[in-house]
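=== RUN LOG ===
request id: a7f3
mode: sequence -> structure
chains: 1
length: 206
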Amino acid sequence: MSDINYTARAAENRQRFIDIFKSKITREGSEKLLAFLTSDGCDFFTAPASTRYHGNYEGGLCEHSLNVYDALVDILARPRVRDLYGISYSDESIAIAALLHDLCKVNFYKVSTRNVKNEQGRWEAVPFYTIEDNLPYGHGEKSVYIVSGYMRLTRDEAFAIRYHMGFSGPEDPGNVGKALEMFPLAWALCVADMEAAYFMEGSPKK
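=== RESULT ===
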């Protein structure tokens, strides 16, 4: 995909994120949080979602957040989830959990270069993403910390964001299992995050 297409897609994703945020998230402090995300001091809309895996390109973090939102909306709308399990959350809680679950990655990735041989056998400098963590506060808990600096989270929202990595994170498995059992939004967000990372994004298929 050309840089022009990447730029156009990033611009579309940015506007869609802002539109969903403004229409769904209205609690006190949300405007200040959005002002931070759209400020020059925040790279949310240009940052990748990872260094080598899903969304490892400019704008990948915003795109991943939107993919998680779409997946989460779909999961919670399923009749089995809604009617059999009795799981239901407000549009605001869904948007908060999905759109803000990875704020820990804001101002986290930096562009560096390394020498790689091209097809002609010549060495050339190739850009790649590296990590520069100036707020080493973990992953999910760091996102909760950042969001909580602007607005209050419900307990369900906080636990969902905290444990959205599920059993793939470094947390005690007992705590993870208990959190997913006690707070269904955490379970749903975890599944949505994996769906986005492995199926909606993921590595290019050979």
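=== NOTES ===
DSSP finds nine helices and two strands in the chain.
Strands lie at 109-117, 123-131.
=== END ===
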